[in-house]
Structures are given as C-alpha cells and as structure tokens.
Specification:
Structural class: alpha+beta
Strand order of the largest sheet: 3-1-2-4
Radius of gyration: 13 Å
Shape: globular
Number of domains: 1
Strand content: 25-35%
Largest sheet: 4 strands, antiparallel
Number of strands: 4
Length: about 90
C-alpha cells in the first residue's frame, strides 16, 4: 500500500467487561491504523480509557465499505475522522 493511499477502516470484534467477573458485553471497535498490531494496541488503550476492566479480542479485519445501519455507520464515520469508535451490545449466551 502506498503512503498516499487511504487506509481502510479496521474492525476488531470481541467481548469486554466493565468489572472483572462481571457480565460480558459484545464489542466492535473501528479505527484506522497502519497495521494490525497498532490497531490492537490502540483498541485496548481506548477500551481501558472508557473504563473496561477486561477485553477479549477475537477477530480483526478490514471493512469492505460503509455499514448500512446505526450505530455502526456513525462508528465507521468516526473511524474515518481518526477516532477509535467503540460499539457495545448485549452478548448472547
């Protein structure tokens, strides 16, 4: 990839906990980063800054275009603007 090319939005999926041993929530983290290691590091830092005590990340990949629905559409736009966007949701058991 050329340095002048726009980088794709990276999405990282997993689970987070507000407190150790608490109820897990599903999480999608969207951001733009130069590589996977940087993406994971920034995601973990942002999750900690938002008060999550634990995180278990499962998958990482590049998004293929803009999502259709909220809240992912806003998160995607935030990532394009340089933010680390975090979407949480109830984790099915």
């Amino acid at each position: 990839m050329n340095d002048n090319e726009e980088r794709p939005v990276t999405i990282i999926t997993g689970r987070v906990w507000k407190k150790k041993g608490g109820k897990p929530e599903g999480v999608h983290v969207m951001l733009v980063a130069p590589d996977d290691d940087s993406a994971v590091r920034r995601a973990l830092e942002s999750l900690a800054a938002e008060g999550f005590a634990e995180a278990e990340l499962d998958q990482i990949g590049d998004m293929e275009g803009e999502p259709d629905d909220e809240p992912h559409l806003s998160a995607y736009q935030g990532a394009l603007e340089g933010e680390v966007s975090i979407v949480t949701f109830d984790e099915p058991f």
